[in-house]
Amino acid sequence: MTQTHTLTHKDLVPLATYEKGRLDYLHKMIEYKNHRRVRLEPRLSVLFENKNTVLFQIQELLYSESLTDTEEIAEYIEIYSAMLPQANELSATLFVELDNQPLLEALLVQLKGIEHALSLEVGDETVAAVFEEEHEERDFTTSVHYIKFPLTDSARQYLESHSPQAARLRLVLNHPHLQAAVTLPTETVQSLKEDLQ
């Protein structure tokens, strides 16, 4: 799957064509995203985004809304394109997930300020996550965050030059109310290396 840093209308499959092949595409994307989703702890997961995952979101949105208007589609492309990783960065979505709504709301209050607490260790370097939005004016955070990890030249070189088995990448959450760390699996590192090509 070739990666580029832009999306256009030409990247989309026409709605009628998408409907015919949707089930097969869904199965492939579920498997693909499984290699890119990392669970920090039972209630928090990070999905690393790229052109394939963003394109899937747009296609599903157009399918659910039976949308064919080119101007509306162009608006969605512009909105979702912000999630694409650019040349020297990784892109991700952070999910705070709980089935129990009262417990979720309490957790979102507890995790206020999470925007300053997430990082990605690439070898010996620590790359702080840059959140699309901060919620300092609220008493709670949100359950979905769009984030970027801007890579230094040396961090990018480390990721490119090490094999997926040898590269050491760790997601680290260091929040006053919640600490967690997880080493990225080999298949996730492999997928991220492909994003940089």
Relative helix content? 25-40%
SSE string, helices as H and strands as E: HEEHHEHEEEEHEEH
Shape, per Cα inertia axes: globular
The assigned structural class equals: alpha+beta
CATH architecture label of the largest domain: Sandwich
Strand content: 25-35%
Q: Give the N-terminus to C-terminus distance in angstroms.
A: 11 Å
Mean pLDDT comes to 93
What does this structure look like?
38% of the residues lie in helices and 25% in strands. The protein has 197 residues and is an alpha+beta fold. It folds into 2 domains: 1-34 and 51-84, no CATH class; 38-48 and 85-197, Immunoglobulin-like (Sandwich), CATH 2.60.40. It has a 5-stranded antiparallel beta sheet with strand order 1-2-3-7-6. The longest helix has 20 residues, at 15-34. The mean pLDDT is 93.
What characteristics describe this protein?
single chain; 197 residues; alpha+beta; Immunoglobulin-like; 2 domains; 5-stranded antiparallel beta sheet; 4-stranded antiparallel beta sheet; 9 strands
Summarize the structure.
The protein is of the alpha+beta class and 197 residues long.
Helix-strand layout with pairing:
Elements: H1 15-34, E1 37-41, E2 44-49, H2 51-64, H3 70-81, E3 89-96, H4 101-110, E4 118-122, E5 125-128, E6 130-131, E7 144-150, H5 153-161, E8 169-175, E9 178-183, H6 186-195
Antiparallel strand pairs: 1-2, 2-3, 3-7, 4-5, 4-8, 6-7, 8-9
